[in-house]
Design a protein that fits this description.
About 25% of the residues lie in helices and about 45% in strands. The chain contains two helices and six strands. Strands 2-1-6-5-4-3 form a six-stranded mixed beta sheet, with helices on one face. The relative contact order is 0.21.
Amino acid sequence: KEQIKKEIQAKENEFAETYNAGEIKNIGYYADDAITFYPNRPALVGKEAIIEFLKADLVENSNKISFKTDEVFVSNDGNQVVEIGYFQVIDSTNTAINKGNYMSLFEKRNGKYVCVRDMSASDVLIP
């Protein structure tokens, strides 16, 4: 279980590093049929839709994101992992502007875990 947690954290780190570098490329994080649920918007269906959303987000800001895997729940056969984690977004002055929690469901496909579903919830109260 600890090894799988490290593997999932490495995927989160790679995702954050790629995003924070200002480029979105296929890093193998999302499955082709992934669905992600961001707050205050309809679900993004498919890896291409998710990537296009992230690219548009990068145009509008220079924020940096980080993820911390808190818990993983691994299926008995090891083919599925539910991850519960914490995220934080900082702006160009290193001020935290958003933080919260997320859940991601990973499936092992072709020997590697890919995210098939994820959602997040912000701790920041919107006035």
